[in-house]
Specification:
The protein has helices at residues 2-19, 27-37, 89-99, and strands spanning 41-43, 54-59, 65-71, 77-85, 101-102, 108-111, 119-125, 129-136. By secondary structure, it is α+β, with helices and mostly antiparallel strands.
Length: 137
């Protein structure tokens, strides 16, 4: 029963995270959006990087989802990377297929529905995790 509840929670989090393209949002807008829409995913304030400026959000209850929101010099979101546990693979691909237009390339989608700039979405399976990257075309 607990595994079922965790599975349902993860599906809800995964589908909700995938549904919003925050590219172009200001840093403040990203923080507001995540705070109001993802109470289980919190901003990690202790993350520092001297090369890239980014916000790091993690699922504190299960550590199955991490989101890196890259911020450009102007203070806007320029790229997004979600990192998932391998157990989420089928659910993530299904969600991407539902929400975005599939390109001819395997594991690549385009978000042209949101009414904003076109966004390439790349899925990559690593040895220990999965990444989904969002980048403006």
């Amino acid at each position: 029963m607990i595994k079922s509840l965790i599975g349902i929670l993860l599906l809800c989090i995964a589908s909700h995270v995938q549904s919003q393209n925050v590219l172009g949002f200001s840093e403040a807008e990203v923080k507001t959006y995540f705070k109001s829409n993802y109470p289980g995913i919190v901003l990690e304030e202790n993350t520092k990087n001297n090369v890239y400026r980014y916000l790091k959000y993690s699922d504190i209850s299960t550590n199955i989802i991490t989101a890196l929101i890259f911020i450009d010099k102007e203070g806007s979101c320029s790229a997004v990377r979600f990192i998932y546990d391998l157990s989420m693979e089928n659910d993530i691909i299904e969600e991407l297929n539902k929400k975005y237009e599939k390109t001819g390339e395997k594991y690549m989608w385009i978000d042209s529905i949101s009414g904003r700039k076109k966004v390439n979405i790349f899925f990559k399976k690593e040895d220990w995790f999965i990444t989904v990257n969002y980048k403006e075309v």
